[in-house]
Amino acid sequence: MTTSVQEDAKDIDATQVLLNNMGGTSGMIYTAIPVVAFVIGNALAALPAAIGVAVVVALVLTAFRVKRGEPIAQASGGLVGVIAAGGVAAWTGSAGGYFLIGIWTSLVCALAVFVSLLVRRPLTGLLWNVLHRNKYDWRADPSVLRAHDLATLAFTVLFAARYIVQDWLYDADATGWLAFAKIAMGTPMFALAVLVTVWAFRRSNKQFVS
């Protein structure tokens, strides 16, 4: 019974580290709020006003997160992203430009994660081993390697789907649907990929840690 509890605690700790390294669930929610503000502002006013509304909302959220005790560097990450996205929108003169950084980031991430599969070093397995101080030869175990192949493939599909769908909506100049896709393909899809990763982590712990 004690061993089972300890393994569950290790799984929870590893999952939390994974979430934190990838922005965290709350961070994704905070990121979605300025997007909604931008789309509403763009529908009711001109593009410059929409950018201003998104930046103001991001500033308020940053102050709220700092007040809650989050480190300034972490809390201000969303604000930097909103300012950068707003800058691209202003530069392109298009509301869709607000989403370009996220679209191209998804493509880069999809390629990077897929390459880790091609070279037989799936990213989730590398992360699991880092969390265990790189002391296990996890790639030598076919079942563990296969589990991390599947977990890493889940993230490849996630990032690739984000790029394909959002790039298509950008080309169609469907800003409202683009915002919806960005939010819908954010936390919900990320949670599914994390569930597969938790399963891979548990498989790895069962083979090497327990």
Silhouette: elongated
Tell me the count of domains.
Answer: 1
What gyration radius follows from the Cα positions, in whole Å? 19 Å
How much strand? Answer: under 5%
Largest sheet properties = none
What's the count of strands?
Answer: 0
Extract low-pLDDT stretches.
Answer: 1-5
Mean pLDDT: 88
Protein name: DUF3159 domain-containing protein
Transmembrane segments: 28-61, 73-92, 98-119, 143-165, 177-201
Keywords: Membrane, Transmembrane, Transmembrane helix
Task: Offer a quick outline of the entry.
With 210 residues, the protein is mainly alpha-helical. The chain has helices at residues 2-21, 25-44, 47-67, 72-75, 77-92, 100-118, 123-131, 142-171, 175-184, 187-209.
What does this protein structure show overall?
It holds the Pfam family DUF3159. Keywords: Membrane, Transmembrane, Transmembrane helix. InterPro entries: UCP010219. The chain crosses the membrane at residues 28-61, 73-92, 98-119, 143-165, 177-201. This is DUF3159 domain-containing protein. This protein has 210 residues and is mainly α. It has one domain. It contains ten helices and no strands. It has helices at residues 2-21, 25-44, 47-67, 72-75, 77-92, 100-118, 123-131, 142-171, 175-184, 187-209. The longest helix is centred in the C-terminal third of the chain and has 30 residues, at 142-171. It starts with a helix and ends with a helix. The model is unreliable at 1-5 (pLDDT under 50).
